[in-house]
Amino acid sequence: MSVEFIGYAAARQASEIVAPEGPVIQPGYLREVARAHEEAGFDRVLIAQSASSPDGFVLADQVLAATERLGVLLAHRPGFVAPTQAARKFATLDAFHPGRVALHVITGGDDADQARDGDLTDKATRYRRTDDFLSVVRKTWDAAEPFDHDGEFYQVRGARSDVRPDRIPVYFGGASADAIRVGAKHADVYAFWGEPLAGIAQRIEEVRAAAAPHGRTPAFSVSLRPIPAATEAEAWDRARDILRLTQDRVGEFKGVRDSSAAVGSQRLLEAAATGEVHDERLWTAVAKTTGAAGNSTALVGSYEQVADSLLDYLRLGVGTLLIRGFSPLADARDYGALVRLVRERAGAATVGA
What is the pLDDT of residues 329-346, one digit of tens each? Predict the structure, then answer.
């Protein structure tokens, strides 16, 4: 079993338990957290996007310039930049850092946050627009000759790009029927929140079935928040501290993002309603507290136990693990032991197959 590890990098440190301090842009911190991920053995870091966050292309370039091997998974919302321009922006970034750039397509599940940037469309319309957007992006990357495109949202004439990448993988997130329909058509890697194993197995089958008519076989990613420690008891002590700190701060950030209409968040809350712990160590208490606003389910246990739980997802057919901590910089450093354990055990499983 091969595995790709993706972490998380932002321009300043913040989380459910860490209140942001100082300027929004802290170049020294961004470089430090990027290097911490590289030293820990991560393959990429996610650069997230919202209607109030710093420009992701600039942050991605800073991360890539500060490291030698680490890649970026750069989130991008279709609808605000023309697809031909977006394709050239990604291709230009990749030309400076070949093979280290990936596109993470975020169609947008929060109507209010979309509206902050002037997008008042509904989710169904946004997914149709994403479909059209990605069709043009692919053509821009691949076409050796000028091309025309006539879609519902985008029409171009004689489009061409002087810079074309060898390959920029497309990651895609979303849990609704519209998301699966569009993502299965375009995604190289389809991304899920950290659901119980049975839910991930179900979703993999749904995406594979939707991708088959397009002749596609996407890979899969799961996003989780590991809480490892030397012993299981110590890990649960830490988890309870994280929950207490999250509960103390939840009023500060719960209203910033409305995840109530996001099917992925609804699925996490449904899991939380049926039990605080699934599959031995998938912990849902933080997801329940925050309204499942994003990646919010944790794996709690010793390093060996958490590594085994991550391997359970790999056995289902997952190839990418997007993991980030509640103490972003310290956890990025600490996860090096976890990354090594998983890779060793995944390699041993492959040899023994």
Answer: 999 999 999 999 999 999
